[in-house]
Amino acid sequence: MTFIWYKTANNIVSYLVSAISSSSTSIIVNDWSIFPSSFPYLLTIEQQLNGETVTREIVKVTAKSGSTLTVERAVESCISDDTANPKTYSQVAHSFDANAVVSLEMTSGTLQDAQNAITDNANAIADANQDITDLVALIQTLEDDISNL
After folding, report:
1. Which tens digits make up the pLDDT trace of 106-140?
2. Nearest 5°: phi and psi at 29?
3. Do strands 41-49 and 52-65 pair parallel, antiparallel, or not at all (unpaired)?
4. pTM score of the predicted model
5. Cα distance between residue 8 and residue 104, in whole Å
6. Bridge-partner residues for 68, per DSSP?
7. Which end of the chain is more exposed for a tag (fewer CB within 10 A), N or C?
């Protein structure tokens, strides 16, 4: 698996300047300067009603130009509606009103990406160690053969 190396930052919270449809691939945020300028990173967009999240989606930011962020929609599953009973995971692009909360948070995808990279590196190290062990055995065999000449 290819390590994506999502960019992260602490305490990034902003709001949509204008509404977006479920097919929008650009979002405009206030406080745009606090968002990273390197990519990709994952954002959570949340529409709240009476203090509860009624619509949520995770998007991937691939570019930024001023206050406009270019996004890939619904890139990760999440609980879309905290008021639903039962709550279910979905991976669906939603429409959001202006002033919806936009935040850069740790997602399971970001963590899974890091875990996969660690596992891949650990496996590569184990393979390299086995190759070293095999080479040491071959060298020993060659030394024994040379001494028996």
Report:
1. 898 888 888 888 999 999 999 999 999 999 999 99
2. -120, 150
3. antiparallel
4. 0.81
5. 7
6. 28, 65
7. C
Task: Tell me the C-alpha distance between 49 and 6, whole Å.
Answer: 30
Cβ-in-10-Å burial (0-12, 13-18, 19+) of 125 comes to exposed
End-to-end CA distance of the chain: 48
Residues linked to residue 20 through DSSP beta bridges, in sequence order: 96
What pLDDT is attached to residue 110? Answer: 84
Residue 1 has a pLDDT of 57
Domain extent listing, the chain = 11-105, 106-149
Instruction: Look up residue 37 and give its two tokens.
Output: 């300028």
Contact 70/64 with Cβ under 8 angstroms? yes
Identify whether the C-beta of residue 137 lies closer than 8 Å to the C-beta of residue 129. Answer: no
Which regions of 4-132 does DSSP assign to beta strands (E)?
A: 12-15, 26-28, 41-49, 52-65, 68-76, 78-79, 89-90, 101-104
Burial of 50 (0-12, 13-18, 19+ CB in 10 A): exposed
- DSSP, collapsed to helix, strand or coil, labels residue 121 as helix
Residue 130: per-residue pLDDT: 95
Question: Closest Cα partner for 1 from 119, 127, 122, 128?
Answer: 119
